[in-house]
Amino acid sequence: MTAVLFDMDGVVVNSEDFWVDFQREEILPATVPDTDVSVTETSGMNFREIYDYLEAEYGTAISREEFIQRFNAAAEEIYTERAALLDGFHDLLDELDARDVPTALVSSSPHDWIGMVLEQFDLEDSFDRVISADDIDAASKPEPDVFEYAAGELGVPAADCVAVEDSANGITAAARADMTVVAYRIEAHGDIDRSAADVIVDSPAALRERVLEVTVQQ
């Protein structure tokens, strides 16, 4: 059996552009004001782990509590006022369902952020499983743990899963989990290393075509 695992930010919704702007222009300058940290360094990571990473690597100028508060406020604005759903995504899910292909949403975001997206875009009953990195006591992307956990929740071997990812850390995580990786190229991430992906696509239509093609091949 094949399963398809979708990342949320940058794939299901185009929120990554807004998150990149927020991190580049607001949160990173406030957190590590004396260091020029690239957004790609932490893309795909759980936001709480981003703080821990910045603290360990560079030292931080704001508290963990303030960091979390700023992220939560940004999430509400991004998911309810700015982000849009991937074109044709409901149709893609319907076609996968018609083929009896199980699906999961696999995100580094916490469940309350995921819930905003599911409600905003009428996706509340659309996935067989909804997985947050908060569900496991392990490292987030680029480590493979969250993808391996999601495959287990679906009851499908990781090697029989297709993961759709946009970030370098997400692509690496899915590849380390031995999944077939469809990398969705978005402008927000620029020229990141996508070499670990099996397929690279540039548009919603191409994403849909290749996901359906790969699930047949599996």
TrEMBL record:
Its cofactor is: Mg(2+)
What InterPro entries does the entry give? Beta-PGM-like, HAD-like_sf, HAD-SF_hydro_IA, HAD_2, HAD_sf, PGP-like_dom2
Q: Which GO terms describe its molecular function?
A: hydrolase activity; metal ion binding
Source organism, top-level taxon: Archaea
Q: Does the record carry Magnesium as a key word?
A: yes
Q: What UniProt keywords apply to this chain's record, in alphabetical order? A: Carbohydrate metabolism, Hydrolase, Magnesium, Metal-binding
Which organism is the protein's source? Answer: Natrinema hispanicum
Name recorded for this polypeptide: HAD superfamily hydrolase (TIGR01509 family)
Taxonomy of origin reads: Archaea, Methanobacteriati, Methanobacteriota, Stenosarchaea group, Halobacteria
UniProt record similarity statement? Belongs to the HAD-like hydrolase superfamily.
